[in-house]
């Protein structure tokens, strides 16, 4: 049965992952992506636009894991020496949504997860995010 996760990453890292069709967490560590399974759902929360940059505090992407196993990736266009562990991921069209716009609709568990690189959340909270992020 598919599970639901929130990953926390700066927006520019999320954009790179979406462009490459992968998901990664905790700076590309292997353990977080090993815990995922094909069919799991992932949403990203971006506290900033870039590392040390302007505050953003938005949910910025949603996708579904499409690969059976993690793989090591070292061919990032903007960071050719960066090695990371990733899973293939199919991203759906989505519009960023500010945390403040939906915070009251999310559980305490999900709000607390926004301080952690990756956390499993409820399907109910993931549905709240999916509805809020659906482009109009």
Report what the structure shows.
With 136 residues, the protein is of the alpha+beta class. It has a single domain (4-133), classed as ph1033 like fold. It contains 5 helices and 8 strands. InterPro entries: PUA-like_sf.
Record the SSE blueprint.
Elements: E1 4-8, H1 11-20, E2 22-23, H2 30-34, E3 41-48, E4 55-65, E5 71-73, E6 84-91, E7 97-98, H3 99-102, H4 108-113, E8 118-121, H5 123-133
Parallel strand pairs: 1-3
Antiparallel strand pairs: 1-8, 2-6, 3-4, 4-6, 4-7, 5-6
The backbone outline, from C-alpha atoms, is: globular
In whole angstroms, how far apart are the ends? 29 Å
Q: What share of the residues does DSSP label as strand, in percent?
A: 25-35%
Helix content: 25-40%
Main sheet specs: 8 strands, mixed
* Series of H and E elements: EHEHEEEEEHHEH
CATH topology: ph1033 like fold
Mean pLDDT: 95
What key attributes describe this structure?
globular, ph1033 like fold, 32% strand, 136 residues, 8 strands, 26% helix, alpha+beta
Task: Briefly say what this structure is.
With about 140 residues, the chain is of the alpha+beta class. It has 5 helices and 8 strands, in the order βαβαβββββααβα. The relative contact order is 0.24.
């Amino acid at each position: 049965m598919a599970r639901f996760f929130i990953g926390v990453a700066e927006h520019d890292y999320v954009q790179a992952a979406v462009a490459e069709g992968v998901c990664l967490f905790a700076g590309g560590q292997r353990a977080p992506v090993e815990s995922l399974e094909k069919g799991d759902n992932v949403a990203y929360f971006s506290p900033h636009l870039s590392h040390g940059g302007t505050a953003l505090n938005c949910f910025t992407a949603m996708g579904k894991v499409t690969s059976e196993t993690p793989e090591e990736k070292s061919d990032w266009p903007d960071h050719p020496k960066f090695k990371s562990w990733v899973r293939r991921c199919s991203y759906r069209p989505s519009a960023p949504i500010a945390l403040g716009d939906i915070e009251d609709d999310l559980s305490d568990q999900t709000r607390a997860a926004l301080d952690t690189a990756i956390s499993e959340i409820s399907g109910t909270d993931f549905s709240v995010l999916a509805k809020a992020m659906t482009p109009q």
